[in-house]
Design a protein that fits this description.
With 159 residues, this protein is mainly alpha-helical. It has two domains: 2-117, Fumarase C, Chain A, domain 2 (Up-down Bundle); 126-158. 65% of the residues lie in helices and 5% in strands. It contains six helices and four strands, in the order H-E-E-E-H-H-E-H-H-H. The chain has helices spanning 2-15, 42-65, 80-103, 108-117, 126-133, 135-158; strands at residues 22-23, 30-31, 39-40, 105-106. The strands form two sheets. Strands 1-4 form a two-stranded antiparallel sheet. A two-stranded antiparallel ribbon has the order 2-3. Helix 2 (42-65) packs antiparallel against helix 3 (80-103). The chain is flat.
Length: 159
């Protein structure tokens, strides 16, 4: 489910107006109540959400098993619901994803145009700006230099 969730996120982004790399058929989307012309990628959004429930089932099972002895105990009766729910969710998600991917339209021309534009340069990180400009960064540099001087003095006096 983790991989389906990650793929879902990519499909949601790629189908957005910002990217426009793919188009999902109407069978896997709905219109927005505010903007009916907008297609919401329902299947990827729902699969991404169902992943949280599957993770919850895993935690439930791990918690159930954490303090049991090696033999069967009545506690084990509680493992069926999360197990079967996870199996049903994973099978259903894989089935609908296979159908959706088979009908998905890839917009190769849009991808080529985006690739030709290249990537935007990475903005200057806040750490870099902080390290160069802030008074506390200047103080840290001064302290670092001063510490080196003090350590050299101590080392010399010990010899």
């Amino acid at each position: 489910m983790m991989h389906l969730s990650r793929l879902s996120e990519e499909l949601i982004l790629w189908s957005s107006a910002d990217f426009n790399f793919i188009e999902l058929t109407d069978a896997f989307c709905t219109g927005s109540s505010i903007m009916p012309q907008k297609k919401n990628p329902d299947v990827p959004e729902l699969v991404r959400g169902k992943t949280g429930r599957v993770y919850g089932n895993l935690i439930s099972m791990l918690t159930l098993m954490k303090s049991l002895p090696l033999a069967y105990n009545k506690d084990m009766q509680e493992d069926k619901e999360p197990l079967f729910d996870t199996i049903d969710t994973a099978k259903g998600s894989l089935k609908i994803f296979a159908d959706m991917i088979a009908e998905m339209r890839v917009k190769g021309d849009n991808m080529r145009v985006a690739a030709a534009r290249g990537f935007q340069p990475r903005p200057t990180s806040p750490t870099t700006v902080y390290a160069k400009a802030s008074p506390s960064a200047r103080l840290m540099r001064w302290l670092a230099k001063r510490s080196v001087t003090v350590l050299k003095t101590i080392k010399t006096s010990l010899n």
